[in-house]
């Protein structure tokens, strides 16, 4: 696919691959030999892309998926071995701290991205991969995908993803999953609220993804970005002031280009102009 000018010039690590079709950017996690385990290079590359597109209204959705039949098997053990050597050399645990915190910053960035983030979950969805699933706007899973938080079984903590898991499925379920390290499939993940839809074969997956993309294009670009930001604010801000500000945003939207076009399209029984893109 042809990338927009800003993304064409972006030099990203080979641990991810980018494809763009119009306003839809697909980011492939590209370490199939390790079930797309999350290396520091991959973390940095994901941040690099989301930094680049943060203010780009022409990019309306980012689809995250993994090469080789797996989404992401968690953190890369090889990176941990390298960190052990670095920590020994400097006589400090700081390399571990910096690495772990960088991963948390990436997860937060994906969570707060103004674009609609869609994840396609296949194969391993473990640890950090589970965390990415929990910050998506739309999560589509194969029934055979394997979810889990294996950290405690490895003698470590799900340190950076824990808050996002709790926000996704609630404290009670998060405690059970994190402390037992249980593995579960896509249908159980749907019951827990991790994923929204479960499909049973590749054709069904691609059809649902196509339908989802069309729905994303049906939403007005600025209204979609502003709505996502407003939804995030509901978790942290006092209700009265939030509703006051939301009323102001609503008024601006109604009188804006998108509001006028959307209203006119409804009256004229046609699709708004922002759906014209193929």
From TrEMBL:
Write down the Gene3D superfamilies for this protein, in alphabetical order.
Answer: 2-enoyl-CoA Hydratase, Chain A, domain 1 (3.90.226.10), Lyase 2-enoyl-coa Hydratase, Chain A, domain 2 (1.10.12.10)
Which InterPro entries does the protein's record reference?
A: ClpP/crotonase-like_dom_sf, Enoyl-CoA_hydra/iso, Enoyl-CoA_hydra_C, Enoyl-CoA_Hydratase/Isomerase
Superkingdom of origin organism: Bacteria
For this UniProt entry, the molecular function terms from Gene Ontology, in alphabetical order, are: catalytic activity
Q: Which GO terms describe its biological process?
A: isoprenoid catabolic process
UniProt cross-references to Pfam families, sorted A to Z: ECH_1
Instruction: Give the family this protein belongs to, as stated in its UniProt record.
Output: Belongs to the enoyl-CoA hydratase/isomerase family.
Q: Which PANTHER family does the record match to this protein? A: ENOYL-COA HYDRATASE, POLYKETIDE BIOSYNTHESIS ENOYL-COA HYDRATASE PKSH-RELATED
Question: What is the official name of this protein in its record?
Answer: Enoyl-CoA hydratase
Q: Which organism is it from?
A: Acinetobacter haemolyticus CIP 64.3 = MTCC 9819
């Amino acid at each position: 696919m042809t990338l927009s000018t800003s993304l064409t010039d972006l030099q990203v690590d080979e641990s991810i691959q980018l494809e763009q079709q119009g306003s839809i950017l697909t980011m492939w996690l590209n370490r199939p030999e390790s079930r797309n385990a999350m290396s520091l290079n991959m973390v940095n590359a994901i941040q690099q892309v989301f930094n680049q597109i943060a203010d780009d209204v022409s990019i309306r959705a980012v689809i995250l998926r993994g090469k080789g039949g797996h989404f992401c098997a968690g953190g890369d053990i090889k990176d941990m071995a390298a960190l052990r050597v670095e920590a020994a050399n400097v006589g400090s645990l700081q390399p571990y701290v910096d690495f772990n915190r960088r991963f948390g910053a990436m997860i937060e960035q994906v969570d707060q991205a103004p674009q609609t983030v869609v994840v396609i979950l296949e194969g391993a969805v473990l640890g950090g991969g589970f965390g990415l699933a929990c910050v998506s706007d739309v999560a589509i899973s194969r029934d055979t995908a394997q979810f889990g938080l294996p950290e405690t079984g490895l003698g470590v903590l799900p340190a950076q993803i824990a808050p996002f898991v709790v926000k996704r499925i609630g404290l009670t379920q998060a405690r059970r999953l994190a402390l037992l390290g249980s593995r579960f499939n896509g249908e159980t993940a749907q019951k827990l609220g991790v994923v929204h839809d479960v499909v049973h074969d590749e054709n069904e997956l691609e059809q649902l993804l196509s339908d989802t993309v069309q729905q994303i294009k049906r939403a007005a670009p600025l209204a979609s970005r502003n709505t996502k930001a407003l939804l995030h604010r509901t978790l942290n801000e006092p209700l009265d002031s939030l509703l006051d500000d939301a009323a102001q945003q609503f008024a601006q939207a109604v009188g804006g280009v998108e509001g006028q076009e959307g209203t006119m399209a409804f009256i004229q029984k046609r699709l708004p102009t922002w759906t014209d893109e193929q």
